[in-house]
Design the sequence.
């Protein structure tokens, strides 16, 4: 009797562990973004044209974001930023009005009126790399991508689109002293906050005057 | 009387030689750099050492039976990759239109199970086919590394999940989670070696295998169990590494077997078996961790760091052998 009880207990434990360990789905019901022939160019184009504009429209004002972080960092990062991986870096979509105070080969220096003070940030105009746009958009779910290369290719494509379609017309016209509207992605280390020298990766640029 | 006291003192001194070495090392580093003796750095060293403690604990059990396991680094990589792969991709069976997904618990258990199976295979080849442990586990080192490359296609498996990352990067009660895991592993191993029949058999086999056999100990079963435990502990190390990096790297764990063996030897466990303890190994692993940390803080070149580490291991073995001769 004691032996049977032991076996029963063992079976129940194994069953419980198995129940908590695996789940089963029909393969056909699962929507996967990727496969062996994942097309990063088509995926990124669709994302850029169909999903990103709405996200850009609802991007938070940079000064408002900074204030929110200074008031309650955890809450602000959870509401207004995103990250695909672990670590301290968070990515956010922001928008701001600014005045171009300096033009250089690699970036433009912008002056932002943040209410009671003036803030200086950089606008990347040459080297557009990294995952800021992809991660800040929160439109890509890491679980859909078994292959890390696919994820990296999405970033590469988004960055290429910025380099080819967003920057050339802007760089052609922009002058020192211009007032511009910028919507873009920023990268912030949540453990070591540093707003000086903040760099914006542009996604939408408009020269106002 | 005087002779008895001196002998007792010497015996106690040799028992605590690792602890004394660690103490001296810490004092020396604290004098040489003010960055060493801080709580943050202490926790950092413990966190970095946690993986080696897990692997070296398993290695201690194997070495106590007069064996050796050179495959732990590769087993670590394969189990880390399998855990990451199952967590991220699950198993898709196209012909049955079935997808088996794994929770963190499921993926971790599967990883540990694979480690135990690989260890079991090591033990099986050592006991059933009488292959010397050095050769059997050297073969497994290559086999497991090959399977890791095949499974991952040579690419890292990254972006697992923030919940999984807690295993390698989380904190609990102000102490890193990997340190808690290592502590649990050590306590379990101490319990096994000191309070169970299996523990006594391990020491008996290492001390004199023939005598152990004639006294009725099932050598095959004990050795297979010990190798399986070593594999499972290497798998735990692999899971910690994978979680900490948020990525399973196909070339993870290269050379980890040497660090584990070094920890065992510095901790006073005899490579000829039957003598040593898990606590000693923990001290050995911490000594290596402190040494690594101290050399980095002192800006010593990585090339010199390897020379220093090798010299320390050599000295530890020479001291151990000298002690054996006197006994």
Sequence:
């Amino acid at each position: 009797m004691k032996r049977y009880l032991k076996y029963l207990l063992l079976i129940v434990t194994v069953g419980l562990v198995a129940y908590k360990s695996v789940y089963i789905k029909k393969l056909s019901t699962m929507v996967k973004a990727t496969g062996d022939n994942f097309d990063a160019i088509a995926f990124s184009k669709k994302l850029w044209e169909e999903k990103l504009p709405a996200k850009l429209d609802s991007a938070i004002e940079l000064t408002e974001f900074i204030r929110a972080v200074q008031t309650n960092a955890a809450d602000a990062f959870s509401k207004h930023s995103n990250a695909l991986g672990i670590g301290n870096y968070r990515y956010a979509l922001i928008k701001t009005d600014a005045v171009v105070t300096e033009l250089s080969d690699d970036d433009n220096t912008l002056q932002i009126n943040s209410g009671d003070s003036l803030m200086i940030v950089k606008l990347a105009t040459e080297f557009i790399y990294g995952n800021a746009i992809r991660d800040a958009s929160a439109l890509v779910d890491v679980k859909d991508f078994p292959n890390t290369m696919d994820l990296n290719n999405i970033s590469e494509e988004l960055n290429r689109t910025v380099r080819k379609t967003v920057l050339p017309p802007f760089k052609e016209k922009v002058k020192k002293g211009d007032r511009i509207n910028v919507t873009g992605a920023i990268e912030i280390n949540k453990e070591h906050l540093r707003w000086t020298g903040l760099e914006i990766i542009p996604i939408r640029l408009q020269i106002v005057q | 009387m005087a002779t008895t006291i001196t002998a007792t003192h010497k015996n106690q001194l040799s028992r605590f030689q690792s602890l004394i070495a660690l103490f001296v090392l810490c004092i020396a580093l604290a004098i040489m750099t003010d960055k060493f003796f801080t709580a943050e750095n202490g926790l950092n060293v413990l966190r970095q050492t946690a993986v080696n403690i897990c692997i070296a604990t398993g290695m201690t059990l194997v070495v106590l039976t007069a064996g050796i396991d050179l495959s732990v680094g590769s087993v670590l990589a394969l189990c880390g990759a399998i855990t990451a792969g199952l967590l991220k991709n699950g198993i898709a069976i196209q012909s049955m239109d079935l997808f088996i997904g794994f929770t963190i618990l499921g993926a971790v258990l599967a990883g540990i199970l694979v480690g135990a199976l690989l260890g079991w295979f090591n033990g099986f080849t050592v006991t059933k086919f009488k292959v010397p442990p050095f050769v059997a586990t050297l073969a497994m080192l290559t086999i497991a590394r090959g399977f890791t490359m095949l499974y991952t296609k040579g690419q890292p498996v990254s972006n697992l999940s923030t919940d999984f990352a807690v295993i390698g990067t989380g904190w609990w009660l102000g102490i890193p989670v990997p340190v808690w895991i290592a502590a649990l592993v050590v306590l379990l191993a101490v319990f096994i070696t000191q309070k169970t029949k299996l523990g006594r058999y391990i020491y008996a086999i290492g001390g004199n295998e023939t005598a152990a056999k004639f006294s009725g100990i099932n050598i095959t079963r004990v050795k297979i169990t010990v190798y399986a435990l070593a594999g499972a502990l290497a798998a735990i190390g692999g899971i910690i590494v994978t979680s900490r990096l948020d990525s399973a790297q196909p070339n993870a764990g290269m050379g980890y077997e040497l660090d584990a063996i070094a920890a065992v030897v510095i901790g006073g466990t005899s490579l000829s078996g039957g003598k040593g303890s898990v606590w000693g190994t923990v001290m050995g692993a911490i000594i290596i961790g402190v040494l690594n940390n101290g050399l980095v803080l002192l800006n010593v070149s990585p090339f010199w760091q390897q020379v220093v580490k090798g010299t320390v291991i050599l000295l530890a073995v020479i001291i151990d052998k000298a002690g054996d001769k006197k006994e």
